[in-house]
Amino acid sequence: KDFMTIDGVPVEIDGEKNLLEVIRKVGIKMPTFCYHSELSIYGACRMCMVENEWGGIDAACSTIPKAGMNIKTNTQRLRKYRKNILELLLANHCRDCTTCNNNGKCKLQDLAMRFDIKDVRFPNTASQPEIDDSSLCITRDANKCILCGDCVRMCNEIQNVGAIDFAHRGSKMTISTAFEIPIAESPCVGCGQCAAVCPTGAIVVKNDAQKVWEALDDMNTKVTVQIAPAVRVGLGKKLELDAEGNAIGLIVAALRRMGFDEIYDTSAGADLTVLEEGNEFIKRLDKNSNLPLFTSCCPAWVQYCEKNYPELLPNVSTCRSPMEMLASIVKDQSNSSSRRHVHVAIMPCTAKKYEAARDEFKVNGVPNVDYVITTQELIQMIREAGIIFTELEPEAVDMPFGTITGAGVIFGVTGGVTEAVLRRLSTDKSKASLMSIAYQGVRGMKGVKETTVMYGDKEVKIAVVSGLKNVSDLIERMKSGEHYDFIEVMACPGGCISGAGQPFAQKDIRENRGNGLYAADKLCNIKCSEENPIMMSLYNGILKGRVHDLLHVNYLP
Ligand code: HC1
Ligand code: SF4
Question: What is the pTM assigned to this prediction?
């Protein structure tokens, strides 16, 4: 066994990649801006400096732990350096903390408090760049950027989009799009993952909560809402819940208190998607045409495909996403109502804000989903209303979209869509058969999962991919001859549970959220989408002769 010493405490080195990880084991949380365990090491912020036994200074994030090392994490010199860095960052930072979108979540604010910074001795020498408000999903404010590069590495390494990068040198250095074009005109797909890792308010998710309050306040407006699968396991500690369990009942109770007229579960829309996508897949498989079939429920993926692989658009399912399927039915049903109807979707996702605004999902110029708010915006609204979440009694969602299935709920975690479709395709719906589908390799947090299943006498090759870099790698493999029949794509690593609209979560919390959805599936007495009784009434009612109009979309140019 190898040991090192941290602040006089001996500690075992057990395969940790860097000193930061070993330091964490002795109960010390080092200050960092530019370190993310899932991104490459940048080592630029210098906040995690440690002093070695010879008085030298090393950045803990980029130092490999070695046996016999003896380091100090908290000396007078280190504290002075850290305060200096913070003061320099604050000097060039606009300090509108109380009105900043990231107030309370900002690492700079947090560390300034932790290091008791009361005075900034340096003048502000920064230029005042304009705020980029062009995207429907995120806002960029370079006045709040500390150049940690987390967003750049996320957008490049995990998402392979490359919409933003460092530009200029020295004191003029910024993070920018190519030629400083508005982010909406860049290759950005609105996944929001840059905002999820931004430690300050330099990139934030657009906030539409005020528009929802305005609709709720208007007596002449009926406000309906749908709740995405992943939202129910995303609230966690932010609302004083112990863990990532299923909080759908409490969410419904809170929404009723806020004044929503009808509350639905997007999982019912997911059941429709399973039926439509299942049929589409069988047809393509029978004709052996347009394979692989890519799923289409993730709007960041659809946009990524449109911008980077337009030749693959015929392979993308024509199914609308569950959010849009449910919304088109909800809006269509209330056409006769005399009140204005606003439909809200609560999503873990920032790209859904863009999806909702797409022309394909408007009727007479009016979007089927008027506003998308994220889980974080929901949390903010619950707090604003003063609702003590944990004191609510759980309530049920409304009919006619109140009956959901386990298949619909698991959509929110990577592999869930595939598992739901496999349940639909399986002729054997016994417990044992459903269990064997679950263990066919589609579950788990790996970014790429592959499996082969039998459909009749056909071998069906499946891939489940999350994180857009993994998707582009898979597409490259396809181009070199690898064949797949069905590919589930979610832009965010781990699926919607890790959407940028959710409170930020490290790997272990993401796993808990996934398990929370599988536990919710266990509690559903109906497991397969085609067994949802609502489906029958929808197909015999509103959907008769209108399946194509209400449930499908054409993304082809
Ligand atoms: Fe998702 Fe979906 S699972 S895309 O991740 O298909 O956002 O949760 O609502 O539409 O159902 C998101 C989640 C969500 C849709 C469904
Ligand atoms: Fe890149 Fe996603 Fe951020 Fe756009 S939203 S800049 S694609 S990480």
Answer: 0.95
